[in-house]
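Translate structure to sequence.
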């Protein structure tokens, strides 16, 4: 083999009970669909031939040094606690270390594991390409996220509502530790495992943390900024369960996710979120709730539980203020303010209200501000005029607001209707729309007339009403 991955598998060295050591299930006819060469080079991988990459990243031939395993965790799913979940269709091959840190390499859709329950452990092509596109677009926009290294067609059929082509995604993450990873050992009162997990997570993500309170504050800070960044690009995760909430502060599990077109804070895309728990506007509240679950799981590690509860409660209760500050920072930059002050919050919220009232496209409206063309985004342009007077008066205090806005507001996002069209073409054997979308989203802040059609919001007949969980 010419492919070389310099594995150093720290999670695999943890005691029994953290994972099931299980190999991927082979597939019939693997075919490499796409490989992220730039990411591979960042990770220090020595690349082999295309046929070899297909064999490795389908799971047929785990590379030398891999230690395949499925991680165990629990989680609150739509507010209800499931005491045992785990990787039911994902297998961690191992970890690599480079100058930027330690990274997991994981196969998703690689077959059944002891945590699969009634699932087949497989993925079909649509969600694999969706995660590839959206995660790489998020990275290009500068948001913390897992990455996509490869997508491989399996040559097998996956049965969901109908027969569909199978595929495997290779995902890269700073780790796959989740709030739910802590929850399972806390719920089981496996305090030695909980302590081991805490020590491992601190070493990997918070080496300056001296105790669980420091660690909690670090996770809270990362998640506060992450969700504020989601809001700033109109992103809706769709399933903010605690098992989809990372310790690293990366976006993970792109299931029923989507970016808003017309601005509506109540937008929901997930087909199973019938109560709107994970609607766009609810995301800041949900992440606070998730951090409260992490805090609860850390209490057993503290020598004085009553004092710990008081300290942890204070840290969690401070989180809405942190989110608000990060929200103000990111949205302030979207309207050209280098560092927005609390007095600027009203200017931002007034714009959002006008956008909601007059059917403005979220992405295009903010992008148009830098080109003095935002007025045309509103069904009643006059509604924008009074706000614009206040905004321009505030911009007079800034030095280069147009440049800042162009650097902050993407020209292109992976719009849901375009993703669905891309998936439909790929299922029919045409990957050209996928490749074009990847090209367009690789430099999202650059104006490029070649991709103007991808900036258009959906027509009424193109609107995707719901997206679906899982692979």
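Result:
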């Amino acid at each position: 083999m010419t492919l070389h991955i310099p594995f150093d598998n720290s999670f695999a060295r943890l005691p029994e009970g953290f994972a099931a050591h299980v190999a991927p299930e082979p597939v019939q006819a693997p075919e490499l669909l796409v490989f992220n060469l730039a990411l591979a080079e960042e990770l220090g991988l020595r690349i082999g031939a295309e046929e070899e990459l297909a064999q490795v990243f389908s799971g047929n031939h785990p590379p030398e040094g891999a230690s395949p395993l499925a991680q165990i965790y629990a989680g609150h799913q739509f507010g209800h606690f499931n005491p045992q979940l785990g990787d039911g269709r994902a297998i961690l091959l191992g970890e690599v270390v480079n100058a930027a840190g330690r990274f997991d390499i994981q196969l998703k859709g690689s077959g059944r594991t002891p945590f699969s329950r009634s699932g087949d452990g497989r993925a079909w092509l649509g969600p694999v390409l969706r995660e590839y596109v959206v995660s790489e677009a998020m990275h290009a926009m500068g948001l913390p996220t897992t990455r996509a290294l490869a997508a491989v067609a399996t040559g097998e059929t996956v049965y969901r509502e109908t027969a569909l082509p199978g595929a495997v995604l290779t995902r890269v993450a700073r780790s796959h530790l989740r709030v739910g990873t802590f929850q399972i050992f806390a719920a089981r009162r496996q305090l030695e495992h909980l302590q081991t997990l805490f020590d491992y997570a601190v070493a990997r993500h918070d080496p300056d943390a001296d105790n669980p309170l420091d660690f909690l504050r670090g996770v809270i800070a990362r998640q506060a900024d992450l969700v504020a960044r989601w809001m700033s690009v109109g992103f809706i995760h769709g399933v903010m369960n605690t098992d989809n909430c990372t310790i690293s502060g990366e976006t993970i599990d792109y299931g029923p996710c989507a970016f808003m077109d017309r601005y509506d804070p109540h937008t929901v895309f997930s087909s199973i979120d019938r109560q709107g728990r994970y609607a766009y506007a609810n995301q800041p509240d949900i992440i606070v709730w998730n951090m409260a679950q992490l805090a609860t799981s850390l209490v057993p590690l503290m020598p004085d539980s009553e004092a710990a509860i008081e300290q942890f409660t204070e840290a969690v209760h401070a989180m809405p203020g942190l989110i608000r500050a990060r929200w103000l920072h990111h949205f302030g930059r979207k309207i050209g303010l280098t560092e927005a002050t609390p007095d600027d919050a009203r200017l931002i919220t007034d714009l959002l209200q006008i956008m909601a009232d007059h059917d403005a496209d979220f992405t295009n409206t903010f992008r148009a501000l830098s080109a003095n063309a935002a007025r045309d985004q509103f069904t009643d342009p006059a509604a924008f005029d009074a706000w614009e007077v206040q905004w321009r008066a505030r911009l007079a205090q800034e030095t280069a607001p147009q440049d800042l806005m162009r650097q902050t507001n993407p020209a292109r996002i992976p719009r849901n209707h375009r993703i669905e069209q891309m998936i439909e073409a790929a299922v029919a054997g045409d990957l050209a729309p996928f490749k074009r979308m990847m090209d367009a989203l690789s430099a999202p802040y650059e104006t490029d007339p070649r991709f103007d059609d991808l900036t258009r919001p959906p027509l009424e007949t193109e609107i995707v009403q719901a997206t679906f969980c899982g692979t």
